[in-house]
Amino acid sequence: MENNKKSKFGKYGGQFVPEVLMPALYELEESYKKYKEDPQFIAELHDYRSNFAGRPTPLYHARRLSKEYGITVYLKREDLVHGGAHKLNNTIGQTLLAKYMGKKRIIAETGAGQHGTAAAMAASSIGIPSEIYMGAKDIKRQEMNVYRMKLLGAKVHTVTSGSQTLKDAINEAMRDWATNVETTFYVLGSIVGPHPYPAMVHDFQSIIGNEAKAQILEKEGRLPDSIIACTGGGSNAMGIFHPFLNEDVELYAIEAGGSGLKTTKTAALHSASLCVGEDGVLHGARTKILQDKYGQILESSSIAPGLDYAGVGPELSRLVDCGRVIADNIQDFEALEAFHELSQLEGIIPALESSHAVAYLKKADDLGDLVIINVSGRGDKDLNTVMDRGI
Amino acid sequence: MKHIADAFKRDKALIAYICAGDPTPDATTKIVHALIRAGADLIELGLPFSDPIADGPTIQAASQRSLQAGMNPDLFFDLVKTLPKTIPYAVMTYYNLIFHRGTMTFAKDCRNHGIAGIIVPDLPPEEADELGEACKKYNLDLIHFIAPTTTPERIERIIQSSSGFIYLVARLGVTGAREDLEDRTKSLIQQVHTDIPKAVGFGISNPQQAKEIINAGADGIIVGSAIVDMIARNTDDINKAVEEIETLTRKLKEGITR
Ligand SMILES: Cc1ncc(COP(=O)(O)O)c(C=O)c1O
């Protein structure tokens, strides 16, 4: 059968899913193409973004942090998006699309609980029932978000298979989707999965970069030298990178280095798929993944549940291969230090995920004079984890 | 070595799925012998993958047991080599294991160890060019799926790129034993017009369902989770599992021959 070239980012991407889902992917692609040009859809999306999500988010000049590092640092404040992370940018878009497509129910996977929360928020405001899949291990470490999802009216399914984290939650959501594909819309949380998800999520998240570009030009009269974003699946990173891809700006995708770039027989002690992953196929796409010598997927690890994933978006795999995006990683202890540093220097408690981006200020050799860090979320959800480790 | 087509030559085909190495390679050998004694025409051997998205809890657990006991692609091919070649075998696995080994190497290993067909639930025809080439080179059948959601024009295109048999998915969702049969399964069978044999799987567990499917026009039935459930219940007494599986297989075979 003809290979769908537009589903690819170079050799990466594609649609590696069971046949039962293929017609749904075509339907999604068609509908998305149609509604993204539809004036009513655009107007409704704009209204949700402005009045529900709270966009545009500020680009904040972090004065004390800047002084500490001797450069000018701006923070893109996605922590201020309703729900506490950039995730709502995407879930509003997809859930609205689900409504326009006449779907009766949305499902979503979640790692940190941020995407699940954002999906539940979008679903209740738009008026569609939602069910969220979450690994048992993540449920334990993100209790507060589990409760938030339930408060918002979502049904939360505990996933006990495999490593009981994000990868297994995606497996289970895909199984649900295959079973209920005719009535259900799968709201995927990052730029991963089969085409058209990586492209669609990329579009919904590009609002971060579009705003940031206009804001930095207004404030500084020039583009930044570097942009730093943490990277799990890669949606906040691609979202802020996108409008800068053809500009002279260094783009840093910072992955979770966990407790070091080592692996045991079945588990990686990190989640750094861009840094050390190999070409493979996971969750519907060819991309860089953490796998053993036979191609079995390794369990990943990170103090930040939203980064704890063995794969990464196919678009980022390509951009790293061709040298446009630089991948690096930050270990758990460095992220914790940055978590405290930003809290104390700027009065902003970042998500542990975003703390990885903040920590890169210290690790990087030369970021230039003007830097934007994407603060993808706020850290309230992580207080238990951090309290367990002591201040 | 037998070809996939041989399974459909005499009669309606009974296709049995087990996960290789569940719970041990020795158990697999015993079960394969029992399946053959009881009349299985083709055996699908699962090569377990860490993230089997098309499988329900039964086969997920089987994959887990097998992986935990140390199964890997090298051991898989070693095991297949020792199995009796009186019937054909197909390997059922997820694409990353094939991709990682290299499609050509994987196909060659299949050919050299006695596997005649490859079934990959996460590889739709759109992505199958590379493995298709490898299968052609090594004279293997790459089995494609048709699901209840597959549109009529897709059905035509899938038939065009098929050989061996076509795997009709009986219901939406994942693998797992069920007692009932949906009406749409029968209409799906009637919608697919081709000389290539049509075998129906997903949720088939008893002789009554098997018979209905054959009466609706299928050329074979595929039974997996019902067999794997028997292994799961008897992991410490494999002889008991073997007995139960042999009895079920005989009954299923009767169901489709009479
Ligand atoms: C605050 C925050 N940042 C980052 C991520 C990672 O996702 P992505 O790489 O898609 O931006 C998550 C995921 O849950 C998150 O909650």
TrEMBL record, chain A:
Pathway: Amino-acid biosynthesis; L-tryptophan biosynthesis; L-tryptophan from chorismate: step 5/5. It is an enzyme of class 4 (lyase). It comes from Candidatus Argoarchaeum ethanivorans. The keyword Amino-acid biosynthesis applies. The keyword Lyase applies. InterPro entries: Trp_synth_b_CS, Trp_synth_beta, Trp_synth_beta/beta-like, TrpB-like_PALP, TrpB-like_PALP_sf. It comes from the Archaea. Gene3D superfamilies: 3.40.50.1100. Its EC number is 4.2.1.20. Tetramer of two alpha and two beta chains. The beta subunit is responsible for the synthesis of L-tryptophan from indole and L-serine. GO terms for cellular component: cytoplasm. Pfam families: PALP. It catalyses: (1S,2R)-1-C-(indol-3-yl)glycerol 3-phosphate + L-serine = D-glyceraldehyde 3-phosphate + L-tryptophan + H2O. Belongs to the TrpB family. The modification N6-(pyridoxal phosphate)lysine is found at K87. Keywords: Amino-acid biosynthesis, Aromatic amino acid biosynthesis, Lyase, Pyridoxal phosphate, Tryptophan biosynthesis. This is Tryptophan synthase beta chain.
TrEMBL record, chain B:
The active site is at E44, D55. It catalyses: (1S,2R)-1-C-(indol-3-yl)glycerol 3-phosphate + L-serine = D-glyceraldehyde 3-phosphate + L-tryptophan + H2O. Its EC number is 4.2.1.20. The keyword ATP-binding does not apply. One of its GO terms (molecular function) is tryptophan synthase activity. Pathway: Amino-acid biosynthesis; L-tryptophan biosynthesis; L-tryptophan from chorismate: step 5/5. GO terms for cellular component: cytosol. It is an enzyme of class 4 (lyase). Pfam families: Trp_syntA. Gene3D superfamilies: Aldolase class I. Keywords: Amino-acid biosynthesis, Aromatic amino acid biosynthesis, Coiled coil, Lyase, Tryptophan biosynthesis. Tetramer of two alpha and two beta chains. Belongs to the TrpA family. This is Tryptophan synthase alpha chain.
